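Reopening: Transposase still failing for me.
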Amino acid sequence: VINNVKQDMVCCDKCKQLFVYRSKDGTATLAKHNRSCEITEYYSSSKSHGISKKFKEKVKLACTEFVALDSRAFELVSGDGFFKMAQSVFDAGKYFNASSNIDVKELIPSPITISRNIDNLYEIKNNQLKNICTSLKSFCIICDFWTEQYTGLSYCGLALRFITTDYKLHNFILGCILYDVETQSATNIRMFIDAQLLSYGLSLKNKIFVVSDNENKMRAAFKEKCIRIGCSIHYLNKQLEHSFTSSEIDKKPVRCDKIQDLFENVKKIVTHVRRSHRQVKLKQKLQLYSDTRFNGAFYMLNVFLNVYDDLNGVLNSVHMDYLSNVDKELLEEICGFLKTFDEAINQLSEEERPTIYKVLPIRQALLNHCQVTHKNSSELKELKSFLVDRIKMVWVLQDQHFMSTLLHPSLKHFHIAPNKQKKAFDLVKQELLERAWISDGATDTASKAITTAISNKRRTTPTVNSNDLLTRCFDKPQPKPISTPTPVTELDNYMALDEIIDETEDVLLFWKRHAQSFPTLSIIVRDLFSISSFKHHR
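Support: Ran it again with your exact input. Result attached.
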């Protein structure tokens, strides 16, 4: 319609071009066009729609104002939940044209509405998780207990970890549950956890793994009807804690006196600066020591080292005396030494990928790192000697650590610890034979059928008709035996496989590729690699 006058038009079905329709010549113009039109089909563009710089700047400004006005963390805008919410609002906006005057407040629910919907969302997700749990045959439970400092209430944290048949690792938090039993005895802890797991249709059995800390009550609680795996980071962190804060352990002196004196002087200065509100004068915020934080001593000492030269302007005379007692060279040496431990803890605390296979090589790497050299100061030699003895004594490797290391293609030859390969190989071989023995019962009937078929084939082998005496003495042709790969053969083939992966590749993808070549080993991997190397990360 142009100037309120209806216009007659025709459209080409191929290229969608419009032509004027006139009664005197009809569609002659369109017919002429059809003879030269070369477009036969439209294809959607594979390129994403470009976003103009103007809109990007507008969204960037809005996000900046969002975190500033509402005092939110910068990381909030990179969360999956934020992306999902923003996409939902964006999709809703597609249904309104540019002239619509819609107030976004009409679209966003109120905090009260959201709070009321939380329980409904929880029930939906919880029921979905229960449905998943009913089909699980192998999984790992991660258990942790702690007491809230101010209320004195105790809580139990439970997490579920398993690997699906498509080799994907899943982590679910089952709950943070108020522990309302009178005492934390081993019996009460086990009964409490069994009841919580039963609500999800889960139960602890002989082949189910539980990761917990290494306190005696936790050892006792999970000594039966499950396989308890000690938290590797808990083992390591406790020894680091003892080296800086304990005068003796297990009735034996620690003998790290000079390093502990340095630690105490730094701790006093950090506490004073934080309490006196002089933190703003420093380029970096000092970190208070926390025994619940993994490698807490390193974080306090390392930040202190970074601002060491700026402390003169913020300390009074009393705390300047503490600073004068801090040997900067020794502080640098200790921080450099502890950095490797921090890297080890970060490696072991990864949640999105398996970590159990890292325990043995990282433990050995730390022992190697603690070897005394002539370049070390006497103070560092004392620290290294203490940590070597404690790691060997307390951080004991379990069978699952040996097997999982062998089942990583880049660690199976144990170059980091050659003397441990034979034990790992024998353990995996034993596990293979046990699983083969169990499966033999199920396949016994099929095996008999195959044997009968071969026997019949041998009996029905045609005889050689010949008048020659020697020919009649020749061996009769025999059918080729059906070769069934044995568990030992499967393990040998895996060990002979010349394929390694780098540290960035997910080891589960390797086993997904080779599941048909190593069927039993791949099942063992799904069971073992669901085990976490740590119980939590506060």
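Residues 129 and 237 are 33 Å apart (CA to CA). If you still see a failure, please send the error message rather than a screenshot.
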